[in-house]
Amino acid sequence: MYCRSCTNLMRKTSVQLDDRAVPYFVCDDCRILLVEGEVTTNLSQDHPIQRGDASDRPCPDCDDVVLEATKGLPGEALSCRRCGLLEVTLGENWPCDEANGPLAELLNAAALVMQTERNRKQKVQLPGAFHVEASGATDFKCPCCEKALTRYKVFDKNKSAPADFEICDRCFGIWLDREDHLARSQDKQTVQLTVDFESIQPAARACPKCRDINLVAMRFRQPDTEIDCCPDCNGTWLDGGELQEFCDHLGGEDHDVIDALVDNAVFQDPALCKTLRHFSRTLHQLDSRVQEQERHLEQARDIQAQLLFAGKEPETMAPTNYGDYQVVRFWQPARTVGGDYFDLIELTIEGRPCLGICIADVSGKGLPASLLMANFQALLRAFAPNMHSPAALCAKLGSVLYHNTTSNKYITAVYGILDLEQHRFTFTNAGHNQPVYSTAQGGSLLATSGTVLGLFPEWQYTEQVIDLAPSDRIFFYTDGVSEVENPEEEDFGEERLLNLVQEYRKHDLLKAQQLLVREVKEFCRGNFLDDATALFLARA
């Protein structure tokens, strides 16, 4: 059963009614209770349910029947005329004495059970001499998950007044605010904590209170535990496991170990505290910049995905059909964004439908390569509709890149034009990996070559023409596929690619590429050191 309010799965439980356990479903957050029709029918024989107006909610069991309001039960109660299911929202009036009969007894008992469980959850027992009770929300943020901390009153049987702590209900970490806590310390501290000064180093998480400064990690020799402290407000953060370790040390004369912790000796040295504060604030600023850069990189990846596959992940894209041909693709950047590129450009040449096919690899990786890749795409799409010779197009691209990029930036590429009616593929290779050509008679590499784009102002490229028969396939790829290494530093290699492309001809194109990609990933254990991209083209 699912709660109709929050859509969470409801908890199935039961209460003892007379001599038997009666089951029901409950959502503790929304205080909504469901009783199945069979149970409702049995319990309401002496006091039948009186129905009122129809509601706008369908029955969870009978989707085509709406629930109806019931009479004789306080609060919002709805029931199904067909199956008898009862849904009750337990408001502030529950438990109540207004309703009679076994069904009302069940609802009252369930309300009491829920209230008891809620009270028990608000009092969390900790090891040793402590227990805590919820007090209220705070503006402090958990340094681990960024969730708002909850203030709890911590009762210690060794002290007369409770202390306030801020605890993360998700991570179970605890924030010890130095000033608030020490104000409640009644006795002189008896615990001496020895700090391992060599262990002090900034931690990569922000102070819950200061927010603009990072915590400092340090280790104590006794007890042997590492904690995070703020060199600005002198507060202390304990992770859930660290809190457990300290609680294990509480007892006897050591019950004030937490008081000693928040007043540790490190921050009694003003010079050291000032140095740590400056270092931690600097680290926090760097962390903020790194997080901002990561957000920018994610945005850049979204833009690149939009350029390459209209915003969809290549693994989830269905094969694309162009006349009698089908294309599938694979893209795996080594970093968030990459310099590999592919494109499929629909053209019309002498009245016939054609397809421009390009796969390219920009030198380098990451954001610089992705920027040059975007520029290359713009150039290719600008020139391709009016330049119907792959060799002439590559010569033009190479010249433009030479005059607009630095000498250490270049692009390898294969560009070709497929005539969809004459089934003729004309292509040129600019320093790129040779595509695998697979036919029913066997496989081979398409061995035409020229220099990379962008290194020379003038370069004449050569073209090659092949006629594609039915079931012929061409596999285009970048060196990130053929040059992946296994743990023994052995390359996957073009020969292995050729053999696998030929072996997987018995499968449809999408399945063949999936099997091939799986082989590559298993070979390198998923460790792609370079961008990896592939295009699979097949004639039906």
Keywords:
540 residues, alpha+beta, Phosphatase 2c, domain 1, 3 domains, 9-stranded antiparallel beta sheet
The portion of residues assigned to helices is 25-40%
**Unreliable residue runs:** 121-128, 249-255
Secondary structure: number of strands: 27
Report the CATH superfamily of the largest domain: PPM-type phosphatase domain
Number of domains: 3
CATH architectural arrangement of the largest domain: 4-Layer Sandwich
Cα end-to-end separation: 49 Å
Describe it.
It is a single chain. This protein has 540 residues and is α+β, with helices and mostly antiparallel strands. 28% of the residues lie in helices and 33% in strands. It has helices spanning 37-43, 102-121, 178-182, 240-248, 257-262, 270-309, 366-383, 390-404, 479-482, 494-503, 509-524, and strands at 11-17, 20-27, 32-35, 50-58, 66-71, 76-79, 86-89, 123-125, 130-141, 148-156, 163-167, 174-176, 194-206, 214-222, 225-229, 236-238, 320-322, 325-332, 340-349, 352-362, 411-419, 424-430, 436-439, 442-445, 464-467, 473-477, 532-539. Strands 8-9-10-11-12-16-15-14-13 form a nine-stranded antiparallel beta sheet. Strands 1-2-3-7-6-5-4 form a seven-stranded antiparallel beta sheet. A six-stranded antiparallel beta sheet has the order 17-18-27-26-23-24. Strand 1 (11-17) and strand 2 (20-27) form a beta hairpin. Helix 7 (366-383) crosses helix 8. The two termini are 49 Å apart.
In short:
The chain is of the alpha+beta class and 540 residues long.
Describe the secondary structure blueprint for this structure:
Layout (H helix, E strand, L loop, with lengths): L10 E7 L2 E8 L4 E4 L1 H7 L6 E9 L7 E6 L4 E4 L6 E4 L12 H20 L1 E3 L4 E12 L6 E9 L6 E5 L6 E3 L1 H5 L11 E13 L7 E9 L2 E5 L6 E3 L1 H9 L8 H6 L7 H40 L10 E3 L2 E8 L7 E10 L2 E11 L3 H18 L6 H15 L6 E9 L4 E7 L5 E4 L2 E4 L18 E4 L5 E5 L1 H4 L11 H10 L5 H16 L7 E8 L1
Antiparallel strand pairs: 1-2, 2-3, 3-7, 4-5, 5-6, 6-7, 8-9, 9-10, 10-11, 11-12, 12-16, 13-14, 14-15, 15-16, 17-18, 18-27, 19-20, 20-21, 21-22, 22-25, 23-24, 23-26, 26-27
